[in-house]
Design a protein that fits this description.
The protein has 272 residues and is an alpha/beta fold. It contains nine helices and seven strands, in the order H-E-H-E-H-E-H-E-H-E-H-E-H-H-H-E. It is 44% helix and 14% strand.
């Protein structure tokens, strides 16, 4: 009996390969897909074989990203919409269904941030940051989840942050929203797992994008920051692609409710 079980195990091992990371035939939707992290993720999913719809509020750059997806041999779709409005999230998902007839992957990459001393945070600033980062993530999950539960399969990947785990001054609304994203991810994973829908998150460290360019223009800050990163550099948006493709693919088929921090080792190197 033990030899039979070993034979079955090794046969299963032989069947696990690169194909498990393929997204061929899958349909993905990426919010915040017109630039920065979202753009890199959208193109990475297309490279892995998925057809990809990209969303942003303004639409600037969306068509260019859609063309980039098509240049990779996949179908692209640009959708303008506001993820903070529940009816808009339903419309966005409906647009995807009209073109592709299904939705397999959702990546919630839309996000905003502003450094503000906590005593100076105004109500509208709190509502804007928490609204896009947390409220928008939830309602996109809800709209996509309705389809995925009906399909009894799907993978949702939320973009959290290293600030989901650590406190950095002047980032209270952002940190609160990203900690909320982690909590939301775990709740939905527990609630939707029985229907075949997996919900995970990635937690980027400091990545050089348009949103963080002001930080990286400060040479003193960059020097101090790099001393805290074991890999000795800031993240490039393409550094996120591997983790996203893994979580979107069958290679991670038994993983849900987890957060993968893509931070160059920042969190593990924080002083006690």
């Amino acid at each position: 009996m033990i030899y039979i079980l070993r034979g079955i195990f090794w046969q299963q091992q032989k069947e696990v390969g690169v194909k498990d990371f393929s997204l061929q035939g899958k349909v993905a939707l990426v919010t915040g897909g017109s630039r920065g992290l979202g753009q890199a993720i959208a193109l990475g999913l297309a490279e892995a074989g998925a057809d990809v719809a990209v969303v942003s509020q303004t639409g600037a750059g969306l068509e260019e990203v859609a063309r980039g997806i098509e240049a990779l041999g996949r179908q692209g779709l640009a959708i303008t919409g506001n993820v903070v409005i529940q009816s808009e999230t339903k419309r966005i998902v409906q647009k995807v269904l009209e073109k592709f007839s299904r939705l397999d992957i959702l990546v919630n990459a839309a996000g905003v941030n502003r450094r503000i001393p906590s005593l100076e945070v105004k109500e509208e600033e709190w509502d804007w940051i928490v609204g896009v980062n947390l409220k928008g993530t939830f309602f996109m999950c809800q709209a996509a989840g309705e389809i995925m539960l009906r399909q009894r399969c799907g993978s949702i990947i939320n973009v959290a942050s290293l600030l989901s785990e650590v406190g950095i001054p002047t980032l209270a609304p952002y940190a609160a929203s990203k900690a909320g994203v982690v909590g939301l991810t775990r709740v939905l994973a527990a609630e939707w797992g029985p229907y075949g829908v997996r919900v995970n998150a990635i937690g980027p460290g400091y990545f050089r994008t348009r949103m963080t360019e002001r930080l990286f223009s400060d040479a003193h800050w960059v020097e101090r920051f790099l001393q805290q990163v074991p890999l000795g550099r800031a993240g490039d948006p393409h550094d996120l692609v591997g983790a996203v493709v893994f979580l979107a693919s069958e290679a991670s088929g038994y993983i849900t409710g987890q957060v993968i921090y893509v931070d160059g080792g920042y969190l593990c190197a924080r002083p006690a």
